[in-house]
Amino acid sequence: MLNGTSVKPFLKWAGGKAQLLHELAKLCPNNIRKYYEPFLGGGALFFFLGPKNYLLSDNNPELINLYKCVANHPREIIRKLETMKNEESYFYNIRNKSFFELDKINAAARTIYLNRTCFNGLYRVNKKGHFNVPYGKYKNPNIVQKEKILIASKLLSSRKIKLMDFREIEKMKFSKDDFIFFDPPYVPAEGYADFKRYTRKQFTYDDHLELAEIFTKLATNKLRLILTNSDTHFVRKLYKRHKIITVESKRLINIKSDRRKSRDVIIYANI
After folding, report:
1. How far apart are CA 174 and CA 180, in angstroms?
2. Cβ neighbours of residue 53 closer than 8 Å, sequence gap 6 or more
3. Are 116 and 148 in contact (CB under 8 A)?
4. Structural domain boundaries of the chain?
5. Backbone dihedral region of 11: left (phi > 0), alpha (psi from -120 to 50 degrees) or beta?
6. Residues 42-58: what's their mean pLDDT?
7. Among 171, 185, 183, 181, which residue's Cα sits nearest to residue 225?
8. The domain 17-59+164-269 belongs to what CATH superfamily?
9. CA proximity to 64, closest of 188, 167, 164, 214
10. Taking Cα atoms as reference points, which of 198, 209, 196, 201 lies closest to residue 235?
11. ∠17-22-24 over CA atoms, to 5°?
12. Are 231 and 264 in contact (CB under 8 A)?
C-alpha cells in the first residue's frame, strides 16, 4: 500500500482482482512515480495501493462517468442511491433507462444501483450498448455503501480519469519509475467463460494479440509491467518471452458454482 491505507472498491466486477490482490501486491514496485491502469474495471488494485499520482482509463463510457462523478459529486450520488428500491419492477424500470439519455449524476447512481442489484454484479451490454443483466433477487444488496463511496472519492481525481482505448497507452511518454497494470477481459478458459461485451464492441482475440505486442514493446523499453489473464495455452504463447506465475482464484461471476474455481496467470516484466 503506497499511501498506508487500503480502500475497498465499491463495485463488484467480473475478473476483479480482489482474489489476487496479495499476490499482485508482492510484485508491485514500492517506488512508483506514476501508476497507470488502462482497463480500470472495479479498480481493486488501484484502491488497494492508493497511489497519489496516476492515470486511470477504460473504454467503457458508463464506467468512466461513474468514477468521475464519484470523484466530484459523491454525496449527490449517495442521496440518489438512498431513494432507490430493491424491487424487481423498479429494477427493470431503472435498467430500461438508457445511460446515454441521463444526466451524469443519475447515470452514475444507475450504474451503482444495477451493479448492486443485478445477478452477481455482472456488467454486460448488448450491441446497442443497453444493459441486459437480469434482476438478482438479493434480500439485502447494500445499494448505498456510503463510506466506501466517500473514501473512494478522496482518492479519486476526475482529472486523472480518462475514457481511452488501451492502445493509446503505447503513445505516452513514461519515466523509468512508472508502473502499468493491465487487467483486460480474460481469454475464455475451460470451465469459465469471461463475458466479453462490457462495451458495445467485444474484446476479441485480435485485441489480445495487439495488447501482447504493446506489452512486449513497453517491456523492451524497460517499463515495469504486470498483466493478468486466464491460464490458457493461447495466453502463455502470447507472453512466452515474459515471466509468468500461476495462481488459483475463484470467480465471483458465474451461474454454476462448480465452475467458480479457476487458474489465472500473472505476467510481469522488469520487476
Report:
1. 10
2. 32, 33, 34, 35
3. no
4. 17-59+164-269, 66-154
5. beta
6. 95
7. 181
8. Vaccinia Virus protein VP39 (3.40.50.150)
9. 164
10. 209
11. 65
12. yes
Cell (9 digits) for 189: 478458459
Residue whose grid cell is 501508476: 35
Phi, psi of 245 (to 5 degrees): -120, 150
Strands 243-250 and 261-269: antiparallel
Share of the chain above pLDDT 70, in %: 87
User: What is the reported pLDDT for 262?
Assistant: 76
Q: Sign of torsion, CA 98 96 105 197?
A: negative
Q: Is the pLDDT at 84 greater than 50, yes or no?
A: yes
User: Under CATH, which number does the domain 66-154 receive?
Assistant: 1.10.1020.10
Q: Are 132 and 126 in contact (CB under 8 A)?
A: yes
Q: pLDDT for 183-235, tens place per residue?
A: 999 988 754 444 444 455 678 889 999 999 999 999 999 999 999 999 999 99
What gap in Å lies between CA 168 and CA 182, rounded to an integer? 13
Question: pTM for the full model?
Answer: 0.91
